Amino acid sequence: MRKSLVLLFAPLLLLACIGCAKLLPSSKVTVVSPWDDYESANREYMKIIPETTTLTELKALGFDPTQVPNIRIMSATEVVGVFVPNSSIEINSLAPGIQKCIRSKDRCTAYKIEPSFKQTKRTGNFFMDMFTFKRVTTTDGWEFLGLIAIVDDVVTYRDPAGGRPLIKSEEVVNKPLGPIQEIGGVLENSAQGVFN
Fold this sequence. Notes:
With 196 residues, this protein is an alpha+beta fold. Helices cover 35% and strands 31% of the residues. The protein is built from seven helices and seven strands, in the order αβααβααββαβββα. Strands 1, 2, 3, 4, 5, 6 and 7 form a seven-stranded antiparallel beta sheet that branches.
């Protein structure tokens, strides 16, 4: 019996001696793009000049949906849905480049640009996390949003850049009873099933 306990707890003690925080789970979500951060995406995006930048120049800047993932091609119908979501908005009140796109119909396309990077890590005490007493999750990253309209291979409109240059959040989940709290929820659900 004593040997069994030693064999059971020896790995736990070993884990306590090494960097336990490294054993916590983590994940990384990267929307692949030629840009490493918000600033570099924005810098290239600002080089797009409406009524001047051609489709060839656009591709040279990295805005090529056939080569770069996460650039969505939108039709003129989708552009209308974005800029004229209801009948109270008149096309004449829109920016001239969008008006030109909508009126050009099938000669118009738009690119919705959405590169991003998010990394999630669990931090804190390994044993508190493993036994669900306290879990701390941090998220870091960035996301860029842009939209351009193109008519006859020339950009007619560039939406102001959007997105989040810096994503930083922390989520803390406390369960004072740890794994017992999980069991309590299961027992409560089971009891409700019996009495209903």
